[in-house]
Design brief:
Blueprint (H helix, E strand, L loop, with lengths): L1 E7 L6 H11 L3 E5 L7 H5 L2 E16 L8 H5 L5 E2 L5 E2 L9 H5 L5 E16 L2 E8 L6 H18 L4 E5 L6 H7 L4 E6 L5 H14 L4 E6 L5 H13 L4 E5 L3 H8 L11 H17 L1
Parallel strand pairs: 1-8, 1-9, 2-7, 2-8, 9-10, 10-11
Antiparallel strand pairs: 3-6, 4-5, 6-7
Helix pairs in contact: 1-10, 5-6
The chain binds iron/sulfur cluster.
Iron/sulfur cluster (SF4) binds next to helix 3.
Amino acid sequence: MKQIAIVSGKGGTGKTTLSGSLSYLFDNHVMADCDVDAPNLHLLMKPETLEIHEYIGGKKAEINDTCIACGICERTCRFDAIRPGNPYSVDPYACEGCGACVLTCPINAISLNDNRSGVYYLSKVDDLPLSHALLDPGEETSGGLIAEVRKLALKAAEDEKRETIIIDGSPGIGCAATSSITGANYVVIVAEPTVSGLHDLDRIVQTVRHFRRKFGIVINKFDLNLDKTQEIIDWCKKENIEILGKIPFDPMVREATIKAEPVVINENSKAAKAIREIYKKIKDQLS
Ligand code: SF4
């Protein structure tokens, strides 16, 4: 089984547009939307939910009514998560679940409890399994939630004997992005020809290289700034990086997104033609 991750140095580069179209072109595969902070693949694919799982991302302290308001826990907490009162209380958004307050409370009035950080789903779009998730507001454990999304995709692929998992990765270079590319056989990096485009690309390339993944670059909306596109091409040449293709700006992409369709189904779209060529190159990389 092969896993392909589609990532970018920042959000809004057209990563999900490409993922949605690749999902249409590939067959016998599973989709995984690993952008758990702002998932949108399910909006494009309109799936039917089959399974819902709660994600426990850590622990939070809770103070019960036996609290005698001595204030020791407030002085102990390094995250300013304890609020004075009678009883004292815990600010769940500030609490890191370290447990220091539990250890210092003289009357054992504090407990550490499981904290739900998000939800993950297994859905189906016609015959296609899709795993996806949503991190709860204010939660920071997106890497762990992405691991659950990927496990669910892997299980669906094994159960249904699917050959490929296509991962719509998390943007950026943080924990969420690295969780999206870990173990992937090939990484497609989507770049854009903007002022910060090369800088964003450089950062994600360094990250992918750190994890020793095979990768190639796609330049989206390349014709909106030909100078910046040339800058990216020259840099890739210098760095010995393969450019899988360039997607032109195409109003049909927006129209397809509004209709919740992959742009690649439109034969007259110039973006669709470029994506079909990119698809062939990715297939070659996997063979
Ligand atoms: Fe209440 Fe225990 Fe905190 Fe004292 S240390 S304020 S008893 S919860």
